Amino acid sequence: MVARLTSTSTNEMLLKYTNNNLYKFNDLTIKLASGNKFNSISEDPTATVNILNTNRQINQIDTFAGNISLASSSLENQDSIFALAEKYTQRARDLGMQAASGTYTADDLTAIKADIDELVNTLKDIGNNQYNGNYTFSGSRIKIAPYTVEQDEEGNITVTYNGSKASDNYQKKTEVADGVFETINVTGDQVFGYHEKVQSTDAGGNKLFRDASDNEVVFDEAQQKYFYTSDGSEYTGDVKALTKEYNQATDASGNKKFEAVDGAYVYYDGSSYFYEDGSAYTGDVNDLNKVYEYNSSGAFGAICELSSSLDRAIKAFKNKNTDVKDSAEQQIRDTLDKFAAGINNITTVQTKFGGVSNRLEMTQNTLDTNKLKLTEYLSGIKDLDFTEAITDWMNAQYAYEASLKAMSQTMNTSLLNYM
Amino acid sequence: MSLSSALNITARAMTVNQYAMDIVSNNIANMNTDGYSKQRVNLGTATNQIAIGDNVERQILSDHGVQLESVTRYNNQFLKDYYRSQNSQAGFLEEAASMSSQLDSIMNELEGNGLDAKLADFYDALNNLNEYPADSTARVNFIETAKTLVAKFSSLSEELTATAGNAMGDGTRGSLEKSMCFVEVNNLNSKLQDLAEVNATLKRVQTGSLGANNLLDKRDKILNDLSEFYDFTIEDDKSGTVNLYMGTMCLVQGENVVGTLEMETPTEFFPQGEIPEDSPSAIINVVKEDGTKYKYVNDQITSGKLGALVQSETPGNNDLTAIKVIDQLDILANSIGNVFNELQTREGAYCLSSDWGELVESTTALFTGGFTETLDDGTTVTTYKASTIKVNSEIENSPYLIATAYFDDPSKFDKYAIGNSDNVVAMLQTRNEKNNPGMNGETYEEFYTSLIGKIAVQTSSGDSSAEAQRDVCNSIQSQITAETSVDLNEELTDLIKYQTAFAAAARVFNVCNNCFQILTTLGT
């Protein structure tokens, strides 16, 4: 208790308490104006750290949600592609089954073959699907179309896969939750397969080519350079002008395999040409077409083999060679199993990504719930309770006005007024 | 006893009461003067020395009446000393809090455009790059966010450096002379001069007089002002003056200033080439009267405003200062720079060729501006600082140089695999990595958040202790004011009292005068 009170000390005290009220009033006014519980980090250090952490988590959730929606739409696109591919492969298989029944004429088979050859192109277009400017099924080679279809002079169709191989095991990872990466890509060779001629190699496993003037050129993997096999000099011409050298198919004893005009297989042991049953081939050697070795898999493998078997069957029909016709029909029947495997490939991948898609949806739900909770929490620590704040603000205003009034009236009174 | 004696008594009474009214008017005139203490007239009965003894007649005849004994000043020395020591403490805490709150406002992350947000943007862009590794928009976007990130680093570092220089300068003369400490030292020196001058005048003035009291008030005010700078030891001298000590060093002795503070830059203070690593940005010396110096007294300045400024640079001080915050930002920038450059140029990392069609080995660093030194064992270490880290301009001009692809198995390398974004995935994983160099088991964002948390806590507790200390000072001050200030009612009462006494004495004088006139006309 202060023993002595003077006008100066009373005035100072009044000013101090009035100022306290003013500060409180001003503080609440700023809070109301900004809508925040506090405006500088030191006002509430704990809440600051929580706000920063929560902001970060919400930001990450937004990123993950964005990733998931991107992944989901890409998966949806893939799913519709798989459905289409399955539909067309199924159709090719149905055609194969009809052809294998043995009740069709040469004209019917020719029509079927035309249909099949068209289906190869359709499947190619499906396999070359682009999404967001990138090829969907070329693995990591996103800017390279995964499939090219070529038909050589003999009518053999090759479907080359140009994307990165499934064996490279490249996985495109998308972060869908803290440190959780989902793989959402699949390479074309895994889904649709391919039907490629096997490129010839030298003893060292280096790939062989031929230049424009039919000289053999070898590509040295180690040096990444092209050399003539004849004299070992370097090939300096345009690499694009080189054509690949392919392996010719052989029988078990290594005899080279040819196809005669009637579709029958003819072998060459280095000195003479003979049929499968050992009888000598008497026709013109120039009429023989090389049979190439193929690397073949999946739907494309099945459909291309069907095409070449149909070709044989048509030739046999035209030349009325029933033996070859039977053998070709057997080949057609054999491709049906491969179709089953090819379709199975597609549906397996489809099922797998169906699972991924479900998982993403689930993650998305969890993220949504988390975000909602975090946003609520953030609002709880950051946002002002307006009802409470306005009540406090009005109280502070009354208090301030009251202290002003008290001060102005007290300060005026002294003995001076009565002298 | 005589009529003339009565006349004398009334005359003196009028003089004394008139003087008392002088004091009242001085009190009223100074009622709003800062630091003024109320003065009071002590009146006493006039006694005549020669009347003492047994000569009753002489006693009766001698003059009586009133006399002015002294003018006393309302004072509470204990409270004043207490106030000064608490005021030094408040000065220290307030200065420290004000420095801390500068950090607080620089590092205010609540508005969402701080480093934390920029770091999040950076990782967002990286995530986008993971989706579209061969896409120029994604690459340019990533580079832009990286540029924003380093720009934020450098702007924070710049602001903090400016703040750090506010206290003691940055080691150059120009910046020293603009520093707060330099300004305060000059203020302090001029206050020391003021104190010495007041001391000198006090020595000449009679104690107990109005003039002396006014000077004492003035000196108290100077001492109060000085206490805010440092908790000086004040020693009363017999001659009525005070001596002022900073620790054991005497700064003011009576009417002489015997020690003034002086500031030097490290280059001015230390011999060339011998500046120690932990040297503060400015050295404080005390220059004695004879020109010799107490050198390098920084360590002794531990209290008051000056103490807060000087201690902010003392190594071993646990408080986060601007310089320490810069150090922390440097650690963060260095770790990010090194980690990302390592990923960008590691073996197996590939960027795009200039035609964007193929992968080629990546050798271009993402961040530049580091300082590279070669260690004894021949390895090189590059250190990045928040102020200098930059996005490599080569990358900026050629976005295809960002290494997005990574092959851990060289035999799997495929130059057409431009959609490979394994290196971006590795970069993304640094966000949750707790073992990045220098991070002590925290992720980048956690590291930064805890730095912000520390600053917030420090500022908050600094603010509240400064506030509490100021409250203590204010309450002592209001106690002092209550005890020593002027009260108008009191003064007006006194005024009426003295006026009445003066009027009454004048009336007595008149009566005596009349009596004299009657006497002079008696014989006529």
Structural summary, described in words:
The complex is a heterodimer of chains A (419) and B (524). With 419 residues, chain A is of the alpha+beta class. Chain A has 3 domains: 37-189 and 299-383, Up-down Bundle (f41 fragment of flagellin, N-terminal domain); 199-245, no CATH class; 250-291, no CATH class. Chain A is built from 7 helices and 16 strands. Chain A has a 4-stranded antiparallel beta sheet, with no helix packed on it. In chain A, helix 1 packs antiparallel against helix 7 (386-412), helix 2 runs antiparallel to helix 6 (322-382) and helix 5 packs antiparallel against helix 6 (322-382). Chain B is α+β, with helices and mostly antiparallel strands and 524 residues long. Chain B folds into 3 domains: 3-74 and 487-522, no CATH class; 110-164 and 322-458, no CATH class; 173-264 and 279-311, no CATH class. Chain B contains 15 helices and 16 strands. Chain B has helices spanning 3-29, 56-61, 77-106, 115-131, 136-168, 173-178, 180-204, 210-229, 266-269, 304-311, 322-345, 393-397, 422-429, 444-484, 488-522, and strands at 39-45, 66-73, 233-236, 242-246, 249-253, 256-257, 259-264, 283-288, 293-294, 349-352, 359-361, 367-368, 371-374, 380-383, 390-391, 405-406. In chain B, strands 3-4-5-6 form a 4-stranded antiparallel beta sheet, with helices on one face. In chain B, strand 13 and strand 14 (380-383) form a beta hairpin. The chains are: A alpha+beta (419), B alpha+beta (524).
